[in-house]
Amino acid sequence: MKHLEQYQHSTIPMVRKMLKHFAELINQRLLFDKSPISYEQFPLLMAAIQHEGSSMQEIARIGRQHRAGILRGLRALEVRGLIKFRNDPRDRRKRLVFSTPQARELSERIMNYVMALEKEVFHGIPADEMRAFLGVVEKSTVRCLHLGATNCQR
């Protein structure tokens, strides 16, 4: 049990716990506002908006997710009127993803929630501590990506 306690208070579980609580707070707000999506679906919506006209395969590659999972997520967004599929004129088998005006409005609203909550969560933490924290997160992310690429080459 000693290892479990050590693990629960180590970096990754603590960051994960913070992100879980952050997502719960955003989801409460989205539920209150009768949003058609949850915060967990937001990254896929943002990918569809930022990579307008991309294929599902391209969005899966960008998001580093399996194509089947992306397809389910995109279909859920389509049902909610947030994206539309169009066939690629050069390759009729390929479906391209386009966001709707409702998607762009919703993403703006969610980003406002996120920014306001982030400001509230980190209120009172000195700027130098925030810069240090973000620096550690950035370096850790780069290191994870490097390790992932290295492990895939073995």
* CATH topology type of the largest domain: Arc Repressor Mutant, subunit A
Distance between the termini: 34 Å
Name the poorly predicted regions. none
CATH architecture of the largest domain: Orthogonal Bundle
For the residues shown, what is the average pLDDT? 86
Helix-strand makeup class: mainly alpha
* Tally of individual helices: 7
Task: Outline the secondary-structure elements.
Elements: H1 2-8, H2 11-32, H3 42-50, H4 56-63, H5 67-79, E1 83-88, E2 91-99, H6 101-121, H7 127-153
Antiparallel strand pairs: 1-2
Describe the structure.
This protein is mostly helical. It has 2 domains: 2-123, Arc Repressor Mutant, subunit A; 126-154. It is built from 7 helices and 2 strands.
Structural descriptors:
Arc Repressor Mutant, subunit A, 69% helix, two-stranded antiparallel sheet, 2 domains
